[in-house]
Specification:
single chain; two-stranded antiparallel sheet
């Protein structure tokens, strides 16, 4: 039973079985395989052009803690365990952590992957029959993410934000996501700052995004002030029933 392989689509991370936390080691390892780039790529991180090889991905301990429901010590220990067994190579600097999956090319057949992608495109052209329109909404949002930025790290962080909204039982609609991107553009002019803003909301399970402010003795007061943005007020109006069902998008 150890011969051969199965195809596993990244959409499995949206399934209700996947969101159960904390992850075990097996789930965390599969999650890393799903995060790895299937091809060589490059993108801007701040003012730096970063090249990411096939089988690698950019992350941070903070992001893995959130994804897996683990402590920092457990994440570090697990990554060290994988390195010692030559399952990954980890390179870290002051901006990012790059993880490369060992033997990725050996187990990811290029021809087979391309065939699967062609089949998926054919399937995507068929009419969607999902009664609650979740498929249509996801297709819209993920297309919007790809159109929004060429920065893979930013795109992945946006997906993590969407996943967080699903986990707190407040999934985003297409209109709500458009409003989120507009607010993000108002708050930040660089990809690096946008990533920090999104990660702040992910860690705190916030439904929207807020400006990053220096931490000081009045941090609680600052946090309260941040939550008084126009987008937050709109969210409260929607959740309070100020609009009819068709306009209740958050």
């Amino acid at each position: 039973m150890s011969d051969g392989w199965i195809s596993l689509h990244r959409k499995i991370t949206e399934h209700w079985l996947w969101i159960d936390k904390p992850f075990d080691k097996r789930s965390a390892w599969i999650d890393m395989l799903l995060m790895a780039n299937h091809d060589d790529n490059k993108f801007l991180l701040g003012n730096e052009l970063v090249e990411i090889e096939k089988g690698s991905f950019i992350t941070s301990e903070l992001k893995l803690m959130e994804r897996w429901g683990w402590s920092k010590a457990k994440v570090r220990g697990f990554l060290t365990l994988l390195q010692n067994d030559s399952m990954i190579v980890k390179k870290t600097d002051h901006k990012k952590t790059v993880i490369t999956i060992g033997k990725y090319n050996e187990y990811q057949n290029i021809q087979t992957t391309e065939e699967l992608q062609k089949d998926h495109k054919k399937t995507a052209k068929r009419p969607q029959k999902d009664t609650n329109n979740n498929i249509d909404i996801n297709n819209y949002i993920y297309k919007a993410i790809n159109d929004y930025s060429n920065n893979n790290y930013l795109k992945q962080t946006l997906k993590d934000f969407i996943d967080m909204r699903i986990k707190i039982k407040s999934p985003m609609t297409d209109k709500a996501f458009d409003m989120l991107l507009k607010e993000l553009n108002k708050l930040a002019s660089t990809d690096e700052l946008k990533i920090q803003i999104l990660e702040q909301s992910i860690i705190n399970n916030w439904k929207s995004v807020y400006a990053i402010k220096p931490q000081n003795n009045n941090s609680k007061s600052n946090q309260s002030t941040n939550k008084q943005s126009s987008l937050s007020e709109l969210l409260e109006m929607i959740e309070g029933g100020a609009f009819d069902e068709q306009e209740r998008d958050f």
